[in-house]
Amino acid sequence: MKANRGQIEKALDAAGQGSAADCRFFLLYGPDEAGSTTLAKRLERAMGPDAERIDLDGPTLRDDPARLADEAASFSMFGDKRWIRINGMGEESLPALTALLEAEAAGNPVIAVAGALKPTSKLLKLALDHKQTMAFASYQPDAREAEQIAVAIAREGGLRLSSDLGRRIADLTNGDRTLMAGEVEKLILYLDAAPDRPREATGEALDALSADNPDSDAAPLVNAVLGGDLRGMHRELGRLAEAGTAMAAVLRPLLTRAMLLANIRADFDDSGRLEGAVEAAGKAVFWKEKGVVTRQVRIWDATGIARVIQRLAQAERASRSGRGLGDLMVRHELLAIARQAARER
């Protein structure tokens, strides 16, 4: 069944208990994978630290469709609670999900983070229609919601964050929950905050920790990476390295563009009109960039751009490890994205 936010949060918090035990499968999908991952952690907390977790993925379920139902019906070796997490679930897992829902018994909850699924997805249709499932789509929060999320994350860690600073953090991370949590965590450590010793966040502290560099011109690199121009990407990386530009300053505009492409792609998939989808994005697409953005939307389908956003988010976290290894990991991710774009051109 299709769930709203209140329903999915309540069900995940009570997974395996009472009436919530009737739900065999939770599908978290949509372009905001960070939001889906945050929701998935609610089930993890509900099951407790001693619960046994079984990790599966799409290829495993494709090759052995019966395994999911078997795992859901099995008892933990240690007598504790048991639950199953599926990463990267797609259409190849439809037989496995069908077997799970047709099984006589399935006592262990199953949760999957699937990223952006097409409206025509048979997997999605099954999850939306079946009474023993719950499906919820996460979308990028708007500016106000992102600000509130940043403030709430800070409050949990003992940090008092003003609306203005929450808005700054949301703008820096383009509203990505995982990246916002990382920025807040840096502030918490910097100010030595904790729930039992709350601290007031300041603009000066955020300035001191921010790796953002507004003077860097990352637009050519953004277009090279997402457009599959490998030679151009290496040239721009060299230029930015000579200028001393931090990798985090490169990743944020890349994330911004990738999320824009995801939104336009979703509109395009629904309407079938690419030019109309680009126009509907309004001022988010600079008029000089319309041709470039249109070509990039053609390169990346919904699933592909969702994976790009995930990789860029992982690269942003890697960049926090400092220069050296962190930067190498970022370059590796950018190269992987550019190669994929080159193959799809």
From TrEMBL:
<keyword id="KW-0808">Transferase</keyword>
<dbReference type="GO" id="GO:0003887">
    <property type="term" value="F:DNA-directed DNA polymerase activity"/>
</dbReference>
<dbReference type="InterPro" id="IPR027417">
    <property type="entry name" value="P-loop_NTPase"/>
</dbReference>
<comment type="similarity">
    <text>Belongs to the DNA polymerase HolA subunit family.</text>
</comment>
<dbReference type="GO" id="GO:0003677">
    <property type="term" value="F:DNA binding"/>
</dbReference>
<protein>
    <recommendedName>
        <fullName>DNA-directed DNA polymerase</fullName>
        <ecNumber>2.7.7.7</ecNumber>
    </recommendedName>
</protein>
<dbReference type="GO" id="GO:0006261">
    <property type="term" value="P:DNA-templated DNA replication"/>
</dbReference>
<keyword id="KW-0548">Nucleotidyltransferase</keyword>
<keyword id="KW-0239">DNA-directed DNA polymerase</keyword>
<dbReference type="InterPro" id="IPR008921">
    <property type="entry name" value="DNA_pol3_clamp-load_cplx_C"/>
</dbReference>
<keyword id="KW-0235">DNA replication</keyword>
<dbReference type="InterPro" id="IPR005790">
    <property type="entry name" value="DNA_polIII_delta"/>
</dbReference>
<dbReference type="GO" id="GO:0009360">
    <property type="term" value="C:DNA polymerase III complex"/>
</dbReference>
